[in-house]
Amino acid sequence: MKKLSLVLISFLLCLAIDSSPGFSKDSLKVGALVPFTGRWGDSGRECARGLLDAGKWINQRGGIFGKNLEIILIDDSSQPAEFIAAFRKLNEADRILLLYLYSTETGLALLPHINLQRIPTLTSSFPVHLADTSKTPYLFSITPTPLDLTKIAMKFISERSDIKMRKPKVAFVSFPDPPGKYFLDEAKSYAKTLDLEIGPDIFIPDIASLKSPSLVLAPLKSYQPDFAYLHLTSKEAAAFLQEVRGMDLKTRWICSMRTFDETLSAFDGVLGVQPISPFGEDVPGMAEIKEGHQKWHPYDSHTLSYVEGWVTVKVMAEALGRSLPEQGFSRERVRMAFEGFKNYVVGGLLPPLNITAKDHRPSVESRIFIIKDGKLLRHSGFISAGR
Predict the structure, then answer these.
(1) Does domain 2-144+280-356 have CATH number 3.40.50.2300?
(2) Which strands make up the sheet holding 27-34, listed edge to edge?
(3) Residue 126: phi, psi to the nearest 5?
(4) 243/340: higher pLDDT
(5) CB atoms within 10 A of CB 108
(6) How many CB atoms neighbour CB 244 within 10 A?
(7) Residues contacting residue 119 through CB under 8 Å, at least 6 positions apart
(8) Domain boundaries, the chain
(9) Which fold would CATH assign to domain 147-274+369-384?
(10) Which one, 110, 136, 284, 381, has least CB within 10 Å?
(11) Cα angle at 16 between 11 and 21, to 5 degrees?
């Protein structure tokens, strides 16, 4: 398995070299730290492929004002010494204009360095308190915060539940480290304002803990929630859902953005709050993704993490294109360009982006998807958590 992972990493790095024009005054450099192994390795590798393919697509169509987009992709090992060294290389040697971080944990650790070096940085997600631009003027995202997405899920449960004679019962299932639970208290308080009853928290340390499920799942069985909100990796969620299949539960499962993807396609009826379009969905922005897929690797399969990588590069390219290139590209102008996004539409691949100098959250909207016959299908229109 380790050998296979190394082969995949080498393949991705070769793609990065092949799809970039090299060090040149004619290129616009952006850095990307993405995990290829570990807890987020599966989705990270797919996201990286989407990043590189989108960069290739843009460059084959003239780049950005005639300049190629050079994506410098580095494996995020989640080891502080290594990702800090990678950050220093991207900042000092490569002089990137923009940085992308897949991992929220890495983003939090690098935040002081990002602020000091004034590098506009896109993360896959960030805690809601980091939307305060007085503390984090260079941090942006393309998706709503985990808290906003959880509020959307609770709003959906409150409005769509067919339970009328009592309060719907909700439990939260998450991993126990801070990124897995930092928003739970506020989310539960919000759920109570919607007249939902909140049960005990259920923390899953890792997949191995499900080998002794009685200790982990006993609170779930005794509480018998009507709905459970899953905030795990998709692989962990698949193992969890497989384990609870044998339990006498009437619970409906609704997943967070990071949990809900094609890995769960075997579990019909599972819901997900997901702002990113699954691969192949019938939206205008998917046309170029499918064309690139058909042209470069028609026999591969993709997930919505691939779409996330692609649309991330589209958003970065838009910010670079808006940053007054006639005056020369600069980090500060890229930051200002992000703050000028108003109802920016990316072909339906994301909710419309609205970013201001006072609030760097791109959106507070998401759709709910459902797994049906092994496919990820739209189950609702856009639902807003409100700003």
Answers:
(1) yes
(2) 68-75, 27-34, 98-101, 121-123, 139-141
(3) -145, 155
(4) 340
(5) 18
(6) 18
(7) 91, 96, 98, 99, 138, 331
(8) 2-144+280-356, 147-274+369-384
(9) Rossmann fold (3.40.50)
(10) 381
(11) 145
For residue 296, what are the CA distances in angstroms to 55, 180, 262, 313, 314?
13, 36, 21, 18, 18
The torsion region of residue 130 among left (phi > 0), alpha (psi -120 to 50) and beta comes to: alpha
Coil vs helix vs strand at 359: strand
What's the token pair of residue 231?
């905030």
Report pLDDT digits (tens) over 18-70: 443 333 467 999 999 999 998 889 999 999 999 999 999 999 999 998 999 99
Helix (H) or strand (E) holding 105: helix 104-117
| Residue for token pair 């809900």 | 260
Tokens of 58: 């843009």
Question: 103 near 293, Cβ under 8 Å?
Answer: no
Residue 107 CA, distance from chain mean position: 13
Residue 322 tokens, joined? 């808006």
> CA 145, CA 139: separation in Å to the nearest integer?
12
What ranges make up the beta strands (E) of the chain? 27-34, 68-75, 98-101, 121-123, 139-141, 169-174, 197-198, 202-203, 227-231, 252-255, 271-274, 365-372, 375-378, 383-384
Residues pairing with 100 in the sheet: 32, 122
pLDDT band at 215 (very low <50, low <70, confident <90, very high): low
Q: Tell me the pTM.
A: 0.90
pLDDT at 14 over 50: no
Structure tokens at 6: 């190394």
CB-neighbour burial class of residue 115 (10 A; exposed 0-12, middle 13-18, buried 19+): middle
Strand residues in 260-333 grouped as ranges (E): 271-274
Q: How far is 262 from 285, CA to CA, in rounded Å?
A: 19
Residues in the chain: 387
Whole-angstrom distance, CA of residue 353 vs CA of residue 356: 10
Q: Which two tokens stand for residue 170?
A: 């909700």
